[in-house]
Design brief:
The complex is a heterodimer of chains A (about 270) and B (about 260).
Chain A: E1 5-14, E2 17-27, E3 32-36, H1 43-50, E4 58-63, E5 66-67, H2 77-82, E6 83-86, H3 98-108, H4 114-127, H5 143-155, E7 174-178, H6 186-203, E8 206-210, H7 214-220, E9 223-228, E10 231-236, H8 238-243, H9 247-254
Helix pairs in contact in A: 3-4, 3-5, 4-5, 6-7
Chain B: H1 2-34, H2 42-52, H3 57-82, H4 89-127, H5 130-136, H6 141-180, H7 184-187, H8 195-221, H9 227-260
Helix pairs in contact in B: 1-6, 1-8, 2-6, 3-4, 3-6, 4-6, 4-8, 4-9, 6-8, 8-9
């Protein structure tokens, strides 16, 4: 299958310090791909490049047959309607209720009127079992609830969804998750995992997940890309990863402090 | 020597980039004002009018009131030592309050209170990725974060300058009357005030009101890292917006002198 999303020889440095050094990766449509690696290796940077939140220094990024790394900010809106992102922190806007948060992309991307967008937002919140909290502010909620509301906001872009609670309806064709289970209790984390899997299986959404969470990585990934020293060190299925004899892979998967892996700052 | 030259060169390049980025924020703000938005931010403008105007009212009244008292006291004290004639103190003071003190001192107060608030709020949103989330939601951050503050700041700087000027004048009058026995009929004379002074006040207040949220918003958008970055942005916003007020005061006053041929 041809690549749906592709990073080609991407370079990125911050204040002269290289982070990505010729990173290349291809993603096929409908798969759940995890990007793993040590902290500061450039995982979040990689996914932010795809949607123009960070510019690359060199290389190319392609999405669905179109080069996207050269798009100016004003031409990124159509891309951001097709690719949603759930950020590491919930990034809900503090001054808005949950319904208003979810209504914002419906108004801006979808062109809906305020009242209609709020009605639709309540339906979208019901899909992640958050309808009873629609009029509450983010500060009044737990991390897990905020994360679910943020997912509802990300999925809000697109056509009107079904009213049935718990039944997902995704607008974006691709959803990027930046450490979606970090800071959550194990039960909430597994619920988020199930939601990601359901998006891919039921709706054909392509999910790219940045994660450090071994149960998530080994439980729901179709493929896993290990980022190391600014390049993709290996791409494999979870089973292949477990069976790999590569000492770098084994050290990371096993969470061992001793080994050949160089970790900045240690 | 080479390293020193490189450091100087890097600083110049960084300064030029900062000025260019500030200009782009200003242009983006003006473009956001004239752009026909499908979703107006009237609620956000109302919230900012309250935050910038109502919540600064006591601060502006108290500071300008005290400054007015001190200035009048000092003026009367010096006059008592030299000529002992207070007849021109009030009318000349009013001319200065209208053409300069009221808008400039009000704006300097707003640069500290409002500028710091804007930079801290936007800076916090930047470091917690809320700005990126806005962009992903199809919202231009300048349209949503700076344009409503720009509108509110322009309106409220003019309103607060008027109120602050009135308080400053009244406080000065009371000080002159009770400390030096100046006749209120002499103090509260309007004979030196001309329409051009009122125009200067309006131009200055509008210019300061426009500069403060743009400079503070620009600093907030440049915040990096975590709380330290927000702290840096807040400090830079207070310094930058205060500096902008002082520079604009000089430029507008010089332009007024030029336009009127020195007849101010």
């Amino acid at each position: 299958m041809s690549a749906y999303i592709e990073w080609r020889d991407v370079h990125k440095a911050f204040a002269g310090k290289p982070v990505l050094r010729g990173m290349s990766l291809a993603v096929t449509k409908g798969e759940v791909l995890f990007i793993i690696g040590t902290s500061g290796v450039g995982k979040s940077v990689t996914i932010k490049h795809l949607i123009g939140l960070l510019p690359i220094d060199a290389g190319e990024i392609w999405f669905d047959g179109e080069r996207v790394d050269e798009l100016p900010e004003r031409k990124l809106a159509p891309l951001r309607r097709r690719i949603g992102m759930v950020f590491q922190s919930s990034t809900l806007f503090d001054s808005m209720t949950l319904a208003e948060n979810v209504a914002l992309p419906l108004r801006k991307h979808g062109g809906m009127r305020h009242a209609a967008a709020l009605d639709e937002a309540r339906r979208r919140l019901a899909q992640v079992y958050m309808e009873e909290h629609a009029e509450r502010y983010p500060a009044e909620l737990s991390d897990g609830m905020r994360k679910r509301a943020a997912i509802a906001r990300t999925l809000a872009v697109g056509p009107a969804g079904p009213a049935k609670p718990g039944q997902l309806h995704s607008g974006p064709e691709v959803v990027l998750f930046d450490e979606p289970t970090t800071g959550l209790d194990p039960v909430s984390a597994r619920r988020i995992d199930r939601l990601i899997r359901e998006l891919a299986t039921s709706l054909g959404v392509t999910a790219i997940v940045v994660s450090h969470d071994p149960p998530s990585i080994l439980g729901i990934a179709d493929r896993v890309a290990l980022l190391y020293q600014g390049v993709v060190h290996v791409v494999a299925t979870p089973a292949e990863l477990r069976a790999s004899a590569d000492p770098i892979v084994q050290q990371f998967i096993g969470g061992q402090s001793a080994g050949p892996m160089e970790t900045p700052g240690f | 020597m080479t390293r020193f030259a490189e450091t100087i060169g890097d600083a110049i390049v960084a300064a030029v980039r900062a000025v260019r980025d500030l200009w782009l924020v200003y242009v983006g703000t003006v473009a956001g004002l004239v752009r026909k938005s499908r979703v107006p931010h009237r609620g956000e403008v109302a919230r900012q009018l309250y935050a910038i105007g109502n919540r600064s009212l006591v601060f502006v009244i108290v500071t300008l009131g005290f400054i007015g008292m001190v200035m009048t006291y000092e003026a009367c004290l010096q006059l008592s030592r030299v000529v002992g004639d207070y007849t021109q103190v009030g009318p000349q003071y009013l001319r200065l309050v209208i053409s300069d003190f009221a808008p400039t001192l009000t704006a300097l107060m707003l640069a500290t209170r409002v500028g710091a608030g804007i930079a801290a709020e936007i800076g916090s949103m930047k470091v917690t990725e809320q700005i990126d989330a806005l962009r992903m939601s199809g919202v231009l951050p300048i349209d949503y974060l700076i344009v409503p503050r720009f509108v509110a700041s322009v309106i409220m700087t003019l309103v607060l300058s008027t109120v602050g000027g009135a308080v400053m004048y009244a406080a000065g009058g009371l000080t002159a009357q009770y400390s030096f026995g100046v006749n209120p009929n002499n103090f509260y004379g309007l004979q030196f005030v001309r329409p051009r002074h009122v125009v200067m006040m309006i131009v200055k207040a509008l210019s300061y009101g426009a500069a403060i949220p743009v400079v503070a918003g620009f600093c907030g958008l440049r915040a990096r890292g975590s709380s330290e970055g927000v702290g840096w942005a807040t400090t830079a916003a207070v310094i930058g917006s205060s500096f902008a007020v002082i520079v604009l005061d000089f430029v507008i006053s010089a332009a007024a002198l030029f336009v009127t041929g020195g007849d101010l």
